[in-house]
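User: Can you fold this complex?
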Amino acid sequence: MKQKINLITQEGKERLRLLRVKQKIKNFSIFFTACFVVVAVFALAASVLVTNQKNKNAKTISLLSTQIAGQEKLESYALITADRIKAVGELFKVRTSYREKLSVIDELLVPGFFLQDVDFTSRQGLKITGGCADVQSLTNFNQKVEEIRARKEFSEVLVSSVSRNSDGQYSIVLEVKE
Amino acid sequence: MNTQKTPSLKSFNRKDYHEIKPLLPYLGVIVLTVLLLFVLVLPKIRQTLSARENNNKQAQRVRELSQKLADIEGLSEAELAETSALLLEALPENNDFYRLLSVVKGSFSQNGVQLEYFDLSPGELGSGSGSLSVKIAFSSSFENFKKLLSALEKSLPLVEVSSVKFKTFILSSETSQVDGEMAIISYYQPLPKSLGKVGQPLTKVSGTEQKIVEELKGYRRYVSFGTTSSEPVLVGKEYPFPF
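Assistant: Here's the predicted assembly.
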């Protein structure tokens, strides 16, 4: 029967274990230090690159700002142009166009009818105050109003007032809305 | 009888110290490395990430400024000067009543409408934006009156006839005579006070807006007030503009 004889004493075993632990600690410290150095180098390099880029951007921004400031005259022309075009555009939307309204007036000028007042800005339309000398011209006037109404060029064509004066003339107020 | 001596604490620690002593530098390096990691390296990494984010914002600003510069350099100064002058004629920067009177005088004169008198209250020159109104007594044929309205619609500065009151309206196959009073409004608006920030994008004019400029180019400009021109003078009435 074979017997195993351990020639290493207990103390020796202990010593061997300690030696292994020491070696592991040494290896770990070397590895950790190496990793730290690598990370530190990368961090430093990245910091340098980012700082360089930041400085470069700052210089570029400063240069571009100076160049733009040097074109102040052109920029002010462009600003005035844009500002004025917008304002004129808004004016055109609300400004009265007379061509259409004058053609309505022309059409309503039947014999015997006379104009007294024309309001071009009345509720974005036309308000005509006039008179007819006699009933025949009033009839002709009404006929013209009906013709204009039938064409449906305007949203509303309204005779808002008709009255007869003591001298036999008729006063009329007509409103035409766009 | 136990002959083994109980090891004393002193001898035990000394033995352990001798065992550990060679490892002390390595342990010291680990501790120092950890310390440096937390004190120097990690803050540096955080700082770099923050700076990188700022760099991205700066890069965006560089792109915006470059675009603005390119837009400005693409503009023609002569063309812009001409366009802005035209637009300022259309919508002046202050309530300059001389311009309004130029339009009135010129358009009345060129369309054969007699200007009897006018009533104008300009107010303080250069105040804010708004409108200027003038009441004018006129006398002409109805045909010339219609021509006048059409002419005023296409005049610079931009004006508007808000109302017409007729005192006399005679329209027949033989005679055409109208006279009365009309109210004309002219508009003004102050110039922008500043160019805004450098980084603000350039305001561009769209195709639709460019059509407004093209339309205004066809409008009529009248010579400045005070320049002599032929004008019908009613018999028995003084020339309304003696100076």
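Confidence is low (pLDDT under 50) at residues 1-7, 225-243 of chain B. Chain B touches chain A through 73 residues (CB under 8 Å).
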